Amino acid sequence: MRLLVYLQFVKLTGFHRFCSSLNRITTPETSIKMNLSDVVSQLNRLAPPSLAEKWDNVGLLVEPSAPHHVEKMLLTNDLTENVLKEALDLKVNLILSYHPPIFAPLKRITSANWKERIVVRCLENRIAVYSPHTSFDASSDGVNSWLTEAFDVADCKPISPSISTSTPSGFSHKVEALIPSSVANNPEVNKVLEKLELIMQRPESQNEMEVNFRSTELCPCILTVLCTEAKLPEIAAVLTSCSQLTKHTQIYKQDKFPIPGHGMGRVCNLKNPISINDAVRLVKHHLNLNFLRVASGVNKI
């Protein structure tokens, strides 16, 4: 039986899993102070911001001036003014808000509306704000994976896999030029190679391009240039300036690969078929809910 699980909400029990994964969390018995930067590094490791949806706003959203130490954190699903009042009463140093309190760009920080007031009061009281949101949804050990634990799952994979932020080579484009033996010693070709060498010698080019040569039975010399998108126009201009190489030059965009286990939603195969009523019962038990709204097709229940 295939079970489609794509729930884009979080219950505090699931978000607690995010916090419990931290190596060090203060407790009433042990008071531990951590630098904010260290806490953020831990949070980013658990829910890398690169996994978030493009439209989302995740990570450290409010940062008091350094140095800032975190001894007490408050966990919330949404940071409202009432939640902020609780945070002030508890004297916390960091608020972990699942949903980002800052979403649309702020053109000013005033007391005109509640979201701006939250930012003002957090900064005034030296409270940092961090939001994982869809980065934690997509994480292999995040909210969506936690939701599937309600069932006896045989295997599970993301509905929409997260894509790596860079290609395996680290460069966005590959420029390949075939140099036939008939033009290998052509002055025009040699001039192009000299220009490429000069570009390579620039300090800034070390992280922007990489040049390799290889040969095959059909072609004695194949020039391959891996480069960033910013460097591509200059490389292409040099290679196509040579009439002998223009018709033998190809530009390829390097593919980014899916990140195993990470992504939005989950498609699961259950070990044994279950009824929709059993599925509802398991979800209610897992989320500790008394009621669950279910939408079904006609004559499906």
From TrEMBL:
<feature type="binding site">
    <location>
        <position position="99"/>
    </location>
    <ligand>
        <name>a divalent metal cation</name>
    </ligand>
</feature>
<feature type="binding site">
    <location>
        <position position="137"/>
    </location>
    <ligand>
        <name>a divalent metal cation</name>
    </ligand>
</feature>
<dbReference type="InterPro" id="IPR036069">
    <property type="entry name" value="DUF34/NIF3_sf"/>
</dbReference>
<dbReference type="GO" id="GO:0005739">
    <property type="term" value="C:mitochondrion"/>
</dbReference>
<keyword id="KW-0479">Metal-binding</keyword>
<dbReference type="Pfam" id="PF01784">
    <property type="entry name" value="DUF34_NIF3"/>
</dbReference>
<comment type="similarity">
    <text>Belongs to the GTP cyclohydrolase I type 2/NIF3 family.</text>
</comment>
<protein>
    <recommendedName>
        <fullName>NIF3-like protein 1</fullName>
    </recommendedName>
</protein>
<dbReference type="GO" id="GO:0046872">
    <property type="term" value="F:metal ion binding"/>
</dbReference>
<dbReference type="InterPro" id="IPR002678">
    <property type="entry name" value="DUF34/NIF3"/>
</dbReference>
